[in-house]
Automatic annotation (TrEMBL):
Keywords: Thiamine biosynthesis
GO biological process: thiamine biosynthetic process; thiamine diphosphate biosynthetic process
CC annotations in GO: cytosol
Record domain Thiaminase-2/PQQC: where: 20-217
Record GO terms (molecular function): thiaminase activity
Family: Belongs to the TenA family.
Pathway listed: Cofactor biosynthesis; thiamine diphosphate biosynthesis
Name assigned to this protein: Aminopyrimidine aminohydrolase
EC number: 3.5.99.2
Length: 237
């Protein structure tokens, strides 16, 4: 089994857990509150800007021209998506560049962003790419799962998790190419480096679940602080 096949196989329980998460179920049923949607939206835009830094690192440390061109293409797509995202916010959810810069990065988002950013200092595509590819893979798989559900047909729920762009899918789509790059890089790496790359992939899948959870429960530094300072030791998070 190739390294990417191992990653995908071992990530299946995480995928199932993500599918079952009440936030994902809330997308299907259209039952998320404006507050939950707003939290996700703000945090996710900030998360996607962090992905820009990770993709930039992949461009820097790519080991072939083909890799660098692919990462460059993915970066352009990311910036276009972000530009369109900023444009389509309703009045109730302003997302101009300035307000975005002041959006506090909440605890789980910070943990996930730092988990990804920490791979940059390895200067290794094998270590950096799985941190990013995991979220991409999971969103594509969740999109496939949602396609088979009877989901509400109104915005903003309708467009959620629809990475329908053909650039992402199929044998020449980004995710397939990312897995091929992981396997090419793995051939040059030690077993230990391969295991580290897999652990990074799986940790991103786990943090995806916590990202939904934080949005569902509105986890913020403020409510963490008040829980700590009032001595609440309730359920995990
Ligand atoms: C948390 C998260 N993970 C992944 C993606 C898809 N790049 C995203 N937008 N947000």
């Amino acid at each position: 089994m190739s390294l990417s096949e191992e990653m995908i196989t071992e990530a299946q329980p995480y995928l199932t857990a993500n599918e079952k998460h009440p936030f994902v179920q809330g997308i299907i049923n259209g039952t998320l509150s404006p507050q939950q949607l707003r939290y996700y939206d703000e945090q996710d835009i900030a998360f996607e800007y962090n992905e820009v830094a990770v993709i930039n690192a992949l461009i820097n440390y790519g080991t072939t021209t083909d890799q660098v061109q692919l990462f460059h293409k993915r970066l352009t797509l990311q910036l276009n998506m972000l530009r369109d995202w900023l444009k389509r916010e309703p009045d109730s959810m302003p997302h101009d560049w300035k307000s975005l810069k002041w959006t506090p990065i909440q605890p789980i988002n910070q943990l996930y962003r730092q988990h990804m950013a920490a791979t940059i200092q390895t200067h290794s595509v094998l270590q950096i790419l799985p941190s990013f590819a995991a979220g991409e893979w999971l969103y594509i798989e969740l999109g496939k799962y949602l396609k088979h559900q009877t989901r509400v047909d109104q915005e903003p729920f309708r467009s959620f998790l629809t990475l329908g762009n053909q650039d992402f899918l199929g044998p020449t789509g980004f995710i397939q190419q990312f897995f091929e790059i992981i396997d090419q890089e793995a051939e040059k790496a030690s077993i230990r480096e391969q295991q580290q790359a897999k652990a990074t992939f799986l940790k991103s899948c786990l943090l995806e679940w916590y990202f939904w959870d934080a949005s569902y429960k509105h986890i913020t530094w403020d409510n963490w602080q008040s829980a700590a300072l009032t001595g609440q030791t309730g359920p995990l998070l």
